[in-house]
Amino acid sequence: MTIAKERFAKLDKDNDGFISEHELEPVLDKLHLSERYYARQQATHAISEADKDHDGRLTLEEMIENPYAFYGSVYFSDDEDYFHEEFR
């Protein structure tokens, strides 16, 4: 099994061969501690950008073919002088 397949399998909690928004949220939530709303937005954005068949889920192929959906996740804060770019 390739590294990509192994990592995909870890995300695919229900073993249906797809990554849903709900399966992606906990990963993003770990990156953005105490920012659950932001994590949900990022999960929705990543899936909408990479989900080429528009079924609301990601396959391994969609994730590999659309890495920009994950690398381009940047959050700028108006209140503070920092930004998140955890996927770069």
TrEMBL record:
<protein>
    <recommendedName>
        <fullName>EF-hand domain-containing protein</fullName>
    </recommendedName>
</protein>
<dbReference type="GO" id="GO:0005509">
    <property type="term" value="F:calcium ion binding"/>
</dbReference>
<dbReference type="InterPro" id="IPR002048">
    <property type="entry name" value="EF_hand_dom"/>
</dbReference>
<feature type="domain" description="EF-hand">
    <location>
        <begin position="1"/>
        <end position="34"/>
    </location>
</feature>
<dbReference type="GO" id="GO:0005783">
    <property type="term" value="C:endoplasmic reticulum"/>
</dbReference>
<dbReference type="InterPro" id="IPR011992">
    <property type="entry name" value="EF-hand-dom_pair"/>
</dbReference>
<feature type="domain" description="EF-hand">
    <location>
        <begin position="38"/>
        <end position="73"/>
    </location>
</feature>
<keyword id="KW-0106">Calcium</keyword>
<dbReference type="Pfam" id="PF13499">
    <property type="entry name" value="EF-hand_7"/>
</dbReference>
<dbReference type="InterPro" id="IPR018247">
    <property type="entry name" value="EF_Hand_1_Ca_BS"/>
</dbReference>
